[in-house]
Amino acid sequence: MIHAHITAWVLALILFFIALSLHKSGKAKGFKILQMILRVLYLVIIATGVGLLFSVYRIDVWYILKAVVGLWIIGLFEMILGRVANDRRTSVFWIQFIIAWVLVLYLGFAKLPMSFLHP
Ligand code: HEM
Question: How many domains does the chain have?
Fold first, then answer.
């Protein structure tokens, strides 16, 4: 489950940047397709994340925070792509994006115990 979870968000992150570069080079159709694939990946990320939550013996506040920040990142993926598609400003969302990623990587890898970094 943890591997599916990591695979899903790594893939989403890569496709997110590919989508942005497609938009930059004016490939609207490719952008739309990636946006749709990403929406499926969001569901996979959430499903595997919820699956991980169910495998936790006692959920504490850090797990809740981890889940909330994970959902926040997904919201930001969607907001940034949506606004980029309409040529609207995204700077506020990029700042949130960086903060949310620092938080989620800290919580996921350092704070919470299920990590392959501490077996
Ligand atoms: C793009 C969004 C997300 C990212 C980047 C992300 C990232 C991560 C990372 C880095 C880990 C640690 C993996 C490891 O320790 O080997 C993790 C674990 C986990 N994630 Fe996510 N996640 C996201 C979304 C979610 C969502 C939406 C949920 C819940 C609804 C969730 C729930 C969990 C849980 C319960 C764990 C296990 C924590 C542990 O005990 O180590 N994640 N995630």
Answer: 1
Give me 82's structure tokens. Answer: 């949506």
Asked whether the beta carbons of 73 and 97 are under 8 A apart, the reply is yes
56 located within any domain: yes
User: Residue 115: CB within 6 Å of ligand 1?
Assistant: yes
Task: Choose among 97, 70, 98, 69: nearest CA to 83.
Answer: 97
pLDDT in tens, 47-69: 999 999 999 888 889 999 999 99
Residue with CA at minimum distance from ligand 1 atom 3: 70
In a domain, 116, yes or no: no
Exposed / middle / buried, residue 100 (Cβ in 10 Å: 0-12, 13-18, 19+): buried
User: In the chain, what is the straight-line distance between the N-terminal and C-terminal CA atoms, in Å?
Assistant: 15
pTM for the whole structure:
0.93
Domain that holds residue 65: 2-111
